[in-house]
Write a structure and sequence with these properties.
Elements: E1 5-16, E2 19-25, E3 34-35, E4 38-40, H1 47-59, E5 63-75, E6 79-90, E7 101-108, H2 119-134
Parallel strand pairs: 1-6
Antiparallel strand pairs: 1-2, 1-4, 2-3, 2-7, 5-6
């Protein structure tokens, strides 16, 4: 270990049939990069509870978590990221509003490679594509 702190986060791969939802960062070092929405896990909070809270905070939407997809670890210059990613769907009647991102889109499996993902989200997008291509 190199003394960098570890940051534990969660991300939702919100699915609608064969398409998934992603957001574009509007701030910070990785402004304009694409990511799966989510955020930090608070002390004492489960990954699932954190994800439901973060999606409500970022997208003003309610989700149902369907299950784990992948856990990705990535070394950024300032910290080590551990990101637990889950499949999710919007609750019936829930609509998303962008509260923290500058853009968002739905992507099919064949569109995922053409997106400028944040470094840690590249591996997530690969896993999503593989799962979507399975049908």
């Amino acid at each position: 270990m190199n003394g960098r702190k570890t940051v534990n986060v969660v991300a939702a791969v919100i699915r609608d049939g064969q398409r998934v939802f992603a957001t574009q960062r509007g701030y910070g070092d990785f402004k304009d990069g694409w990511e799966f929405p989510g955020g930090k896990i608070e002390p004492g909070e489960s990954a699932e509870a954190a994800l439901v809270r973060e999606i409500r905070e970022e997208l003003d939407a309610d989700i149902v978590i369907e299950g784990p997809l992948i856990t990705v670890e990535h070394d950024y210059p300032e910290f080590h990221l551990v990101m637990e990613c889950f499949w999710a769907v919007l609750c019936e009647g829930s609509r998303m509003r962008l509260l923290e991102h500058e853009a968002a889109s739905w992507f099919g499996a064949d569109e995922l490679d053409g997106v400028a993902w944040l470094p840690a989200d590249v591996k997530v997008a690969q896993a999503v594509r593989e799962e979507l291509e399975k049908g």
